[in-house]
Amino acid sequence: MQKITVQSDYIKLWALIAMTVDHFDRIIGHTEWLGNTIGRMAFPIFAFLIVSNYCIYHPFKKYVVRLAFFGCFTNLILHYFRPESGNILFTFLWAILFLEACEFITKKTRVPLWQAYWMAFLFFLMLPLILVADYSLFGFFFIMSLYAYQKMPTKLNYITVLITALCINFYSVWAVIFTLVTVITLLSGIKITKGFRLIKWWGFYFYYPLHILLLCCLKDLL
User: Fold this and answer.
1) Which residues pair with 7 in a beta bridge?
2) Which of 54, 87, 115, 179 is the least buried, fewest Cβ under 10 Å from its Cβ?
């Protein structure tokens, strides 16, 4: 099957819209339906983009610096305005460090990739990032399964992606449906490319904490 080529910024925009709808519903709307439908599309898309870019371009140092800096910046806002919320940037930072550890172990020891997973996984369970990361272990497993599928696109790894996708949003039928539809669409033959930039890279990172801040301020005004 021929892959469909899509510029990464268009997929990021899709994810940003879904994320904004989700947070609007959680902070102001409280309909639950919006958050459990459109809102459930955001995390799988961002995770897919992170893993795809890592596998293709391997921007490890850039990712670590950006995710660590903006993760700490975002945590300041979440601490004062949404203390009950996890930080998705720390989830991705945790995952990127894990993926780099897998790559390092595989190259240095020449062990099979699945063994590198578990060697790195036992160490990463001890990292304190899990305490402030959104989606916790479920999100981590999902990103790990996406990476495995990118490296080895077998039926078993495909099924693993779907199972871990179910785990991240299993609390609602609508959430499960929209999550699975999103994941299946992303894995159905989309090829990510870089092209015309809709927004500078830092714009996407700043948007996450700032839109939460604006929504919280809007809630107080209402």
Assistant:
1) 193
2) 115
